[in-house]
Amino acid sequence: MEVSGINYYEHVLDIRRVIEEAQVQNCDEALNICDLSSVERKFRLWQQQLPRIKPYYAVKCNDDSRIVQTLAGLGVGFDCASKNELKLVLDCDVSPERIIFANPCRPISHLDYAKQRQVLKGTVDNEFEIYKLHKHYPNSNLIVRFKSEAKAAQCPLGDKFGCDADIDASALMLLAKALDLTVTGTSFHVGSGCTELEAYERAIKKAKNIFKFGELLGYDLKLLDIGGGFPGSDDEQFVKIAANVNRAVQRHFADERIEIIAEPGRFFVAAAYTLVCKIHAKREVRNAAGKLDTVMYYLNDGVYGSFNCILYDHQLVTAQHYLEGAESLPTFKSLIWGPSCDALDKISENLRLPNLNRGDLLGFPNMGAYTVPIASAFNGFPLPRTLYFRAI
Ligand SMILES: Cc1ncc(COP(=O)(O)O)c(C=O)c1O
Questions:
Q1: Beta strands of 115-214 (E only): which ranges?
Q2: pLDDT, tens digit (0-9, with 9 covering 90-100), for 174-193
Q3: In the UniProt entry, which residues are flagged as the active site (predicted)?
């Protein structure tokens, strides 16, 4: 099994077989199993469901270079938030036209880098940033980001970014006009992990009004950016959201000359990763009568490592054991801890599992989004190694 390269499989990636061949039980660190073909399948699903909308992958979600290279090879665009993300993508031979600098508040040195590498498209949502652009990158293309939040999302973003769509967006465009800057479009983000189907429709309608005001000012707005928020592990929900988006686009942006892009992050990568952890210690908690009440397991990865998604991304993780013939075994309330000495390092407390042993493994699917770039080796526990796979 190749640690540095890509491994190939036929038809379906067999996680049990990977675990056996990679000898995970003999290793101290956890294992990330990354299926690059899953990313490719997601791309095909996107093309099928949202043919008019070009995805610009949000690099922040998972900046693994193999993920970025896979998406670059598929012709996807990129949403970058910083100089380092721009560099990562540009170094994969992605042309600057395929990049949007979608962080409305950027340090000057990062703007200088965007200017030097000719990344023109960038979002903006306040007057100070417009003055900054006027001084440091006056020929950039401004995309006015407005706020339009979903009623339900895993991680709302509206407290931090996005101007008011009715009043502020117009004022920002007036200021840009007065400073002789070019506004080329508008953008929004309904919130990451959006679960409200109508959220995009509502935002697209607001975007249309911003386009109308831009036209009044003499701007030729050509870009609508509908942001991220698409689910990563629920394709049925994605199909429903796509139908809503298509309907709203048809109603408000029927003119095919307007380019429509999106910034999906978790959509592409969440399902591509399965994390396999080892139980390195356990404790049994008994009630006053001596009956086994809860089994506590201590794993080799936790919330300071890959499971940071529980803290930062509000993810609910599901675990799977690999015991043969466990169907007939009794299950127990199970509490799962990470390896550090911190009691915040709790992975799950709502699982029922058979009574597992030290050395047994637990697999966690859908671990590709907002995990890898944020994980730290706190308390000296190493991060998981990653094996990459692709279907033949
Ligand atoms: C500006 C921007 N675009 C896109 C994304 C990706 O969102 P998601 O992973 O929900 O698709 C984020 C996530 O925080 C973001 O801040």
A1: 121-124, 141-145, 153-155, 182-187, 192-194
A2: 999 999 999 999 999 999 98
A3: 341 (proton donor)
